[in-house]
Amino acid sequence: MAIFDDRPEQGVGSMVSQDGTDxxxxxxxxxxxxxxxxxxxxxSVLAAGSLLGAYLLRFEFEVxxxxxxxxxxALPFLLAARFGANWGWGLSRARWRFVGTPxxxxxxxxxITGSIVFALVVHSLPFAxxxxxxxxxxxxxxxxxxxxxxxxxxxxxxxxxKRSRNLDGAAPRRVILVGAGEAGSLLARxxxxxxxxxxVVGFVDDDPLKRGTRIQGIEVVGSPDDLAEIAPLxxxxxxxxAIPSAGPDALRRxxxxxxxxxxxxxxLPGIGxxxxxxxxxxxxxxxxxxxxLGRDPVSLALPELRADVGGKTVLVTGAAGSIGSELxxxxxxxxxxxxxxLDVAESALFFLEREIREEHPDLPVRxxxxxxxxRSLVEGLFGAHGIDRVYHAxxxxxxxxxxxxxxxxxxxxxxxxxxxxxxAGRHGTEKFxxxxxxxxxxxxxxxxxxxxxxxxxxxxxxxRFSGTDFRAVRFGNVLGSAGSVVPIFQRxxxxxxxxxxxxxxxxxxxxxxxxxxxxVLQASILPGAAGKVAMLDMGQPVxxxxxxxxxIRLFGRRPDAxxxxxxxxxxxxxxxxxxxxxxxxxxxxTPVDKVLLIAPRDGFLRxxxxxxxxxxxxxxxxxxxxxxxxxxxxxxxxLTRFYQELTGHVRPGESTPVVTVMFSDRAPSLEPAPGxxxxxxxxxxx
Length: 686
Description:
24 strands
């Protein structure tokens, strides 16, 4: 019956037992379809019993015979008054499983209304019996108590039955809720009411005033510090953090406190859900490592992005990578005129194209498998498609790998960036956004130096091509990207191996991939960013050792005791700590919170950009054709000396013969291209 049970109505076949006889399902369905009459029947019985009880109490259980006759005559009038009042106040539509304060208010209103009508009838009609006023008051009180009592009794019985089973009949998971506030109370209520497979066995909270109190009938049994002792006593199966406003620091403290218990952790995210009342088991999710980062996530609203890219032709290079693919997804949502995806990774590009076409069937998508160093491809791409926006994410990023592949890093990260930026400027592209990295700040690695050179190439293009808006965006490590430390730790934990950390004190900045892409897109529409580098204030860096320990705890294990941590030493090209800006870079605030701009330093490039790039071309061509004595070590040394001389890290008088080679007289010049008003590279230039 819907009054008593909120399960969906079943078909006729389920109302009859297999042998053709009526079963409990038939009775439930019969009552459910007649719940209006059933409810009023129960309320009538309660009213009659209350009237009888009122007479017994009024006359101390010795009711005169005349009063008994009067009560029997008055009973139909009372039932009629109660029926009308209950119908008017909607008591027959109340779901007994969900009764609360609003239903009690309606109950009181219905009782008062019915009593007034009954009193008017019995005291105004000449043939009606005279009912003592005390009887009217006692009956009203008894009816209220009896009705509320049957509601509460049913609800408690129903919820108790749900605590002992879920939809499949299996025992529910016993959970401890961390946080006895509004969110914890709402979550516990939903778990008690629904068939979600959970049973809340206790709360823990830091507030000592809440200890021993009950919320939704469940006791606050202690603080998070006591979880290691409380969990075995309550036979808990998991811990749920019901504090949506808890930041990374608070979550880390909770996880550390729970280190002694081998239980999975889940969280109830989103304070907005609490404010909207949308708090339930369906919102519970596993605690993720990004919940424990040493910074609060930055959400960058981009209401202007659709106006900026809407109807435009957008090129994303490196589109198959973690950043490039997310760029493609978020750009596609904002209705560009055409989306062009370029990458050398064939398989990943194929699946990305399928995904975007399925999500946005009306969006023209073009995928190109190719290299940004392919001059014909790049020229044909810009010449044929009239590209309006370029998001350049293609790069070689693995620090140790680039230490032994110096030529590839220089060719792809520096000359490939120049080739794209030069083509964008010559063909009138409106905006060009370079994806950079914190490793470009005071770099010590090949990857860092080449990415810093790429930044210089892009920002220097602003002077040469004033009609194109060139800018770069710099951020730290992203969680979930290929080669990120998090997937490596996850794989090691799944395989039962020790976690490998380079150094106990090494630290990194972290952000999620969506955050990084938000920053890139914000940089593309940020006023006053032309010729500059946008940088996100990423908060405090995270120690990799702390990250490793927290991941071990998230897997329900104990650091060092269950999973050892092995220190392997810094890899080639790695720094102990990363930076987002160097001391000699000047930053300026922007209208966007936590986003800063870095302006290029005057005279930062000691030689004209064209001369620099031409010298690099000749140098790497020598590496390819003639080889360099000493192999990768010699190439790193030559690149380092060249970078230092170029950026002023070495006094001019200390320049070496290597620099002389890189600025050889063989460097080709820049001349206007035939038939064009803008210059075009000739000869051996990139």
